[in-house]
Write a structure and sequence with these properties.
The chain is built from seven helices and eight strands; from the N terminus they run αβββαβαβααβαββα. The protein is of the alpha/beta class and about 260 residues long. It folds into two domains: about 200 residues, 3-Layer(aba) Sandwich (Rossmann fold); about 55 residues, Orthogonal Bundle (Helix Hairpins).
């Protein structure tokens, strides 16, 4: 996997932090300087942290596990939906439902409710309901789709979380920590980087910055999935070769046994 390009981070505005008066002291190691009252992040350190996080995420994806991406702020929504959907990972962009992780069984029940409504539409049950009931169910289905549609395929707890803005998504961070689920996150100068396992010091407000970080992270996921598929193909080919060799050997063995019997 190639290293992150410093210039690309600079062009995306990843280095712009918050106002000095809003800073978190634990972000001091990642701050390069102050300019016009705004903290500027050290992009060399950002690149190192980003590469470390990307490598770890690649290994998780390679193992076939799911990573849940969380970003409910509007600047991140489009980037999350386009980049994360492309690697077939679950994401949350509307709101974080309380207990999403700690009460996962209830969330799964709501997802199953969505599936049961879909079955009603398919088998004709929906048509025999009154107009009012159909309207209520349609509205319920739309709400479930909006809130949970992007995690419909998440059948078990995710193996990791990627979070944009840990201050805004503090509930998600707390739930993941309670369950010992590894966390990756974009951490701006106003946040505590020690709250997550893989902090990536970067601007978490600008759409370009968020998109750049997501490009690297989803690229790592794609690389992990690709390597997983390559390994599967190699194992399959090796198994087929072994089976073919065994099949070819059986007639020769049978012929040798026949000759010995004579």
């Amino acid at each position: 996997m190639s290293k992150t390009d410093y210039k690309e981070l600079l062009q995306a505005g990843v280095h712009f932090g918050h106002l000095k008066r809003k800073w978190h002291p634990k972000m001091a190691p990642y701050i390069f300087m102050e300019k016009n009252g705004i903290h500027i992040l050290d992009l060399h350190k950002t690149a190192v942290k980003l590469d470390d996080a990307a490598e770890a995420m690649k290994q998780i994806a390679k193992s076939g596990k799911k990573i849940l991406f969380v970003a409910t702020k509007k600047q991140a929504k489009d980037a999350i939906e386009s980049r994360v959907a492309a690697v077939n990972m679950p994401y949350v962009t509307e709101r974080w439902p309380g207990g999403m992780l700690t009460n996962f069984a209830t969330i799964r029940k709501a997802v199953r409710k969505m599936s049961s409504i879909d079955n009603m539409l398919k088998d004709g049950t929906f048509k025999v309901l009154s107009k009012r009931e159909r309207l209520q169910i349609t509205r319920q289905r739309a709400k479930l789709e909006r809130d949970l549609g992007s995690i419909a395929d998440l059948n078990r707890l995710p193996s990791a979380l990627f979070i944009v803005d840990i201050k805004k998504e503090h509930i998600a961070v707390a739930e993941a920590k309670k369950l010992n689920i590894p966390t990756f996150a974009i951490v701006d100068t106003n946040s505590d980087p020690t709250l997550v396992d893989f902090p990536i010091p970067a601007n978490d407000d600008a759409a370009k910055s968020i998109d750049k970080i997501l490009e690297v992270m989803t690229g790592a996921v794609a690389a992990g999935l690709s390597e997983r598929q390559t390994d599967k193909d190699k194992n399959k080919a090796a198994a087929e070769k072994k089976t073919a060799a065994k099949t070819d050997a059986e007639p020769a063995k049978a012929e040798a046994t026949s000759e010995e019997a004579k």
